[in-house]
Structure to design on (802 residues):
């Protein structure tokens, strides 16, 4: 719908941009019938189609929906997506799960199961999925189930696709929005955003978007001593210490070169900064914790992209080149573990004895991604539709991570490290003697460079006017170069390992994935479909030092997810009622598992870890969503997800001599809910003010309980009653969230609303920590730490559109 210019805006625009005075008069927007559902256009098949004509499960959230539901970030977004859940330790750090396909969280050395796209730009990051601010977004598409043929690797379980609003030469338009709020027991929050669309000529327009927000804190860092009674946290104890700030903007230009060709250039920048911790300690009370360091996290990314589209007569050609750069730095408090290991291990292994010193865990991480895609899409209205394309990307991930302990050179651990460097290793190629002074007690440097080439295609043929069949395939080849360095302390390679000083593991592989679908339209409003689709993750090679132990295999291959899906999409009651239902069966083969020293009970070395392929799993369930315009004033929407995730056979350690069962047949998957519900109702009151509408809305979501990890599931299935009892502490209960709004929308373009988030002040959480370091000291603190959602919050929003 094209925006209208007010007389003032038109006059200002004509004065500032005289080149645009020759534009044709803007046509009035098509009037929407409030008693009928508007069609929703999506690009789930990489071409623009009505959502109701796409033969797969898709959820699309429009600009209007995002505004009316007061969605601002991924945390808000997930509640309205039936097949999506997420685990977030802190704002901006997200693990996305689709249809419950997961083996855990914190899997930084295995590729993601869900891909994230911003327009045509991939920006996926395992366990660190970017959180796109929902300002000036045309829509968000959730595509559950394998999307391997069209969206490539890391879309094995699904794809989350953000689509931004594009420049428009039809006329000047803009929007400004401001929001202020407060959290129960916390500090105020602020949010300012806006955008402007400026046609500079009859064939060129620019669009600029900007936003800034500060979410006030609500977690108190309570005064207390450390586990060894060494010192207190008086220097950092504070109320409401967790603050999240987001800043960013987008700038895009659309040049219509001629009636057949156009060029879109886009630059996007976003930065999210957190200070403090979002954790809560059940012993201390809700939203209270004791930390000995003022934690922080900075997440900064930008992306640039160019897309050239042109009509060739028989097809549309699309060429996209993009570059994505992201930097994530953080530093957590590590004092509890540092003192725990000193007491537990340091008495008999001097290298672990760092005394009572306080410690932190810093991480400096970055990703650079170059991606290129070329697509040819048929445009003729014949029985045969087709698409063919090529894709190439080069993704480089790097991090420097470890434990930082100021004063390390004065500890027993430092003495032992120098003894090993001088008396045991005594090899300048491995470690200097004596070691160079450092505060890095534990040091890990990791590099991962993946280059991937793919060719894909899809054909759809109409057998009759109502019945069509589709086939698709994607061939891919990848090369992965990885480097993993461990030193304890920095400068002393673990296990006297020369690989830690520069050797790189290399791997390569290729394969093909397929897709088949058929759909039948009983009439323009009712369609049934059946779908088979495949997804995949890339494989790789493990560290040679771990392989040499005989406990870890040399390589691990891709794993695959096969999806069998059938559904119906329908509209009834003269397009006032929408009902979509799909059932699915997904089979996950050769699952990539991460194995660590905690799983290798006889290994005795923390650095022995790697990936391997083992076992199969299955997820079956249904998705149901609908919308009912009961009247032109009353609107109901809902979605339901029901699943039954389970592993289909036992998975043991790759080294059979250890005999440790990692996964048992029939066990459920971690962080995989068996049910999720969302519902919303919106009502517009009869117009009692001639200049606008008064409206109200309420939405509620509920997600079923989930297990925190595979370890918790393993303990729950143990023969030891103590293990079973302990496992229940890691069963995350049902998650509930609700939002209420009442607002007024003026005919002159402004609106205001009162927003209540977490209406019932639920103490839900999606993340908990399994550490219990205090037990060794008889200290009840620091056990079963969790991150409660923001308490009941009140906001007032004002928005003006021109």
């Amino acid at each position: 719908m094209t925006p209208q210019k007010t007389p003032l805006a038109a006059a200002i625009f004509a004065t500032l941009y005289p080149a645009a005075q020759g534009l044709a008069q803007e046509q009035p927007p098509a009037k929407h019938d409030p008693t009928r559902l508007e069609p929703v256009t999506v690009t789930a098949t990489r071409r623009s189609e009505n959502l109701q004509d796409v033969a797969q499960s898709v959820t699309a959230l429009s600009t209007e929906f995002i505004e009316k539901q007061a969605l601002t970030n991924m945390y808000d977004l997930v509640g309205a997506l039936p097949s999506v859940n997420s685990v977030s330790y802190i704002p901006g750090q997200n693990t996305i799960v689709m249809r419950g396909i997961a083996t855990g969280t914190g899997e930084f050395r295995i590729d993601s199961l869900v891909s994230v796209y911003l327009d045509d730009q991939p920006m996926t990051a395992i366990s660190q999925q970017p959180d796109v601010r929902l300002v000036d977004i045309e829509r968000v598409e959730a595509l559950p189930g394998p999307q391997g043929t069209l969206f490539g690797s890391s879309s094995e379980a699904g794809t989350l696709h953000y689509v931004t609003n594009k420049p428009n030469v039809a006329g000047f338009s803009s929007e400004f929005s401001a929001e202020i709020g407060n959290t129960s027991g916390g500090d105020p929050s602020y949010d300012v955003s806006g955008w402007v669309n400026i046609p500079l000529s009859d064939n060129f327009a620019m669009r600029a978007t900007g936003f800034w927000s500060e979410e006030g804190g609500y977690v108190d860092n309570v005064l207390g001593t450390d586990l060894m009674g060494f010192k207190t946290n008086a220097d950092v104890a504070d109320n409401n210490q967790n603050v999240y700030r987001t800043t960013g903007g987008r700038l895009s230009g659309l040049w219509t070169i001629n009636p057949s060709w156009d060029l879109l250039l886009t630059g996007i920048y976003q930065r999210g900064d957190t200070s403090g911790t979002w954790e809560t300690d059940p012993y201390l009370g809700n939203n209270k914790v004791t930390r000995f360091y003022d934690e922080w996290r900075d997440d900064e990314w930008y992306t640039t992209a160019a897309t050239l589209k042109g009509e060739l007569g028989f097809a549309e050609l699309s060429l996209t080149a993009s570059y994505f750069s992201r930097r994530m730095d953080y530093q957590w408090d590590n004092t509890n573990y540092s003192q725990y290991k000193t007491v537990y291990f340091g008495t008999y292994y001097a290298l672990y004895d760092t005394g009572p010193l306080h410690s932190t865990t810093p991480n400096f991480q970055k990703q650079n991604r170059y991606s290129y895609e070329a697509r040819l899409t048929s445009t003729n209205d014949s029985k045969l539709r087709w698409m063919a394309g090529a894709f190439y990307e080069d993704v480089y991930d790097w991090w420097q991570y470890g434990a930082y302990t100021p004063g390390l050179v004065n500890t027993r651990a430092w003495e032992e490290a120098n003894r090993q460097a001088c008396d045991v290793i005594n090899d300048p190629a491995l470690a200097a003697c004596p070691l160079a002074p450092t505060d890095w007690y534990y040091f890990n440097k990791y590099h991962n460079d993946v280059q991937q080439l793919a060719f894909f295609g899809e054909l759809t043929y109409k057998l009759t006017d109502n019945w069509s069949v589709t086939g698709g395939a994607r061939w891919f080849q990848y090369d992965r170069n990885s480097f993993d360095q461990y030193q304890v302390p920095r400068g002393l390679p673990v296990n006297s390992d020369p690989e830690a000083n520069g050797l790189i593991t290399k791997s390569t592989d290729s394969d093909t994935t397929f897709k088949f679908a058929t759909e039948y339209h009983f009439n323009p409003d009712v369609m049934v479909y059946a779908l088979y689709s495949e997804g995949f993750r890339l494989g790789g090679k493990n560290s040679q030092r771990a392989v040499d132990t005989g406990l870890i295999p040399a390589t691990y291959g891709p794993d695959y997810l096969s999806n069998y899906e059938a559904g119906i999409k329908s509209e009834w009651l003269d397009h006032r009622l929408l009902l979509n239902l799909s059932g699915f069966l997904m089979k996950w083969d050769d699952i990539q598992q991460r194995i660590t020293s905690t799983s290798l009970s006889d290994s005795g070395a923390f650095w022995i870890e790697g990936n391997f392929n083992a076992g199969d799993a299955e997820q079956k369930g249904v998705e149901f969503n609908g919308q009912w315009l009961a009247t032109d004033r009353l609107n109901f929407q809902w979605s339901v997800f029901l699943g039954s995730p389970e592993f289909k056979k036992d998975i043991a350690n790759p080294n059979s001599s250890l005999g440790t069962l990692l996964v048992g047949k029939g066990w459920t998957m971690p962080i995989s809910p068996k049910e999720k519900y969302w519902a919303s109702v919106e009502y517009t009151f009869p117009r009692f003010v001639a200049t606008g509408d008064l409206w109200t809305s309420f939405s509620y979501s509920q997600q079923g309980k989930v297990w925190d990890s595979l370890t918790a599931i393993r303990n729950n299935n143990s023969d030891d009653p103590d293990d079973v009892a302990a496992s229940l502490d890691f069963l995350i209960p049902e998650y509930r969230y609700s939002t209420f709004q009442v607002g007024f929308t003026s005919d002159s373009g402004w609106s205001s609303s009162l927003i209540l988030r977490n209406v019932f002040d639920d103490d839900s959480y999606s993340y908990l920590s399994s550490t219990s370091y205090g037990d060794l000291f008889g200290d009840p603190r620091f056990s079963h730490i969790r991150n409660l959602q923001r308490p009941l919050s009140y906001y007032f929003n004002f928005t003006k559109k021109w």
Remarks:
- Residues 1-29 have pLDDT under 50 and may be disordered.
- The radius of gyration is 28 Å.
- Residues 68 and 697 are 8 Å apart (CA to CA).
- The first helix runs from residue 7 to 16.
